[in-house]
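Entry 14. Structure prediction run on the chain below.
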Amino acid sequence: MAKGIFPQMSTHDIINALGGWGISVSPDQLKTPNAEFVEGVYCACLQQVTDLSHDSLRDPVQNALNVSQAEDKDLYASALTSSAVLYHLTRFAKAARVEDFNSKDITSPERERTLILLSAFINFVKFTEQYCDAFLKDLRERSDGLIVKRNNIIDRVNEIQEKIDDLKTKIVQDGPICEQLDSENVALKNTMFLTKDAQTRAVQDVEQYKTERNALLERKKALGEELKSVEETIARTRSRIVQSPERIKKSISIMSTGAMEDKKTVAMHEAKARDLQTKINALHNIEKDVRGCIEQLQTIEREVRSLQVSQKELGEQQTHLDDKIIEKNELRLRQERVGDQLANANVKLERAQRHAEDKKLASQKTIERLQLEYDEMVIERRENDKQIEEVRDEASEVEAKMNEHLKNSEAELSELLAEYWKLRHETDVYMETLANKLNMRVISE
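Output returned:
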């Protein structure tokens, strides 16, 4: 018996409620319900709440059958659809506080039971329309939004996976280049340090050469001043010279000696000047080389900065790749959970298929047993028909014999009665005659 707290509806109320949903129902159909009628009405009530119907269940059932390895899928389609409809109707009935809903309510409906179930379903549908429409609408919208988000996430995961694969491929391709750049970077660093040391030594040499040059220039200037003073001294000396041959000779020899020494000194200074000029030219060349080294160092520094920027970008890409790997792991975990849910669903589907297969085998065995029993009943019926014909023939013969015997018995009975009345009459006459003779009173019975 249906259990629940809902008002019992009359036939007229049920017809009006179903008519409001566009379901045409007659009182005769409610008075004598059949399986097709009640299933259609129950599914219509279910559709009002859950939007589930035979059409909406057809595609999932077909997909499940396509995934399965069962043969004769058309044979299972109707049974699986009926099982799915019965499952959803049972859940719907439990929600309507009808705990004992079963397949008998569909296959072998009873009038009172059908009215009670329709009352429960209609009251539950009206309750959901009154109180649950906004919630269900919001829930459906959220569900659709989640489905869209899931599809977007799946597309994004695929795009990220493609980017990750491209990055992995690029990393593999750029690996030799990175190694080559690392080795070149190390070589450039070593070269830069060596060049810097050479530059430091060259700068020290240049400073030393500049100091020596300044000293030589000052010495040259001093020598020039000394020459001027010597020339002035010679001029003054010439003005004081006495015109004496000996003294002149002596002065000439002294002056020749001084001139020779001055020439040697000048030659020595010229040699030193040439050496200094050679050193200055060398210093100019060294300065040019230092400028080239400085330019190379600046180029190296630019390359180092570019390499540092590249390494920074590589680090950022590595961090981004790590984030994507973490996100990929999370999505893989979600995919594994979805796979587990799919596996559970497949297990349930296989269980349902095995159950359906067992039911099918049991039904086939029952059908075969019933067919055998039917064949035996047909044979027995034929034999019974033959026996009935024989009994009928015998009954006809017996009836004919009975009629004939009855006629004979009636004739004999008539004769016996006639004889009986005749004998009685004669007995009465004899008794009366005897009584008259014996003067006795005879009381007739």
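The mean pLDDT is 78.
Filed with the rest of this week's runs.
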